[in-house]
Structure formats: C-alpha cells, structure tokens
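Subject: Sanity check before I submit

Could someone independently write out the structure tokens for this chain? I want to compare against mine line by line before I put it in a report. The sequence has 191 residues.
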Amino acid sequence: MTLYPVIMPVDEVSSRLFGKKKVERLSAIAREALRLSANKSGIALGELRKDRDDRPVPFDGIYWSLSHKSKYVAAVLCTEKIGIDIEEIKPRSERFFNKTASAKEWDLVGGKNWCNFYRYWTAKESVLKADGLGIGGLLQCRITSVLNDTNIEIFYKGQRFKIEQLYYRDHIVSVVKNDYPVEWIVIHGVT
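---
Independent answer below. Compare away.
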C-alpha cells in the first residue's frame, strides 16, 4: 500500500471563524481531504467516528488521522495505525524547546531553531496520534535519527517509527510512514 497524505487549503471565510464553529468547519475540510486520500488509495470511506476520548475509530480495518490549522488541513488513512500533523512554522515561547526534545535530540539537527522545533513537534505528534494519545507523551517519543531534511526516526514505547515530512508554504506536515511509500497530494486551490 502507498500512503496518500492530502494537504488542503482552508478558505478565507472558514479561517476567520472562531471557537466551536471554526473547529467544526476545519474538521469538515479535513474530512474532505481524507475522502481524497481514500479515493486515491482505492478505499471506500466508511463512517468516521471518534471514541469518547476523541480518538478516531477505525472503519473496516482502516485507520485514519486528521490535522487542521487556520490555513491548511492534512489527512491520511492506512491499514495500520497512522498519524499526521500539520503546523505553521512561526516563533513561540522558547520554553517549548525543552518540552519538546532533549539536548541530545537537538544535537541531531544542529541545535534549536523554529524550523527544527516544528520538525520535531509534528513528527512526535504524528506518532502520538498513531498511538491514540495527545501531546502528553511528547518527551517519551525520542528522535533517534535525522536521516535527511524530510525523514526522521523516532523510538516510542519499544517501537521504531519512520516519519516523512513535507514543507509547504510556511507549514510542515509529518506523517508516520514506517515502511510504506508516500505520495503527497497537495491541493493548491480551495475546492
């Protein structure tokens, strides 16, 4: 199986919404991206439900993951546990560096900067999503290898995860790929 992660823009009206309305709209756009991923994968998209802890419930043995921000959403599905995360690369409080990775991990990418921060943040978040957890386990995920500008390996709960990353318009997207080939689908216009 090839993974087809989809990145889709958010229309201006939706990006200006607030609170629950914004979350609902971004979720709907992310589900449309998931439909495109399913179509490309040749998978009939089943009912998309979440459990009481807000974790995606597999349908017909198919796992799925969504991520959304104000400008873009990302989605992917797979026959194994899967996770995807998208973030806009922008400065935050520097206290997040130490909450995201150890000194040894920062040394693997030549130190702390915002691009490296989001590489690590999204990679770890994609692994935690595949495991069904939130960001609470961020420091339990350890970056063990930075293979190149778009591939990272993480060790978490006794298992090694391979992550592929894509940079797009001041954003970074990370997807758990393990041994699957990845073909990114980037939708450039609002559908």
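---
OP: Matches mine. For the report I'm noting this point. The CA atoms of residues 100 and 138 lie 6 Å apart.
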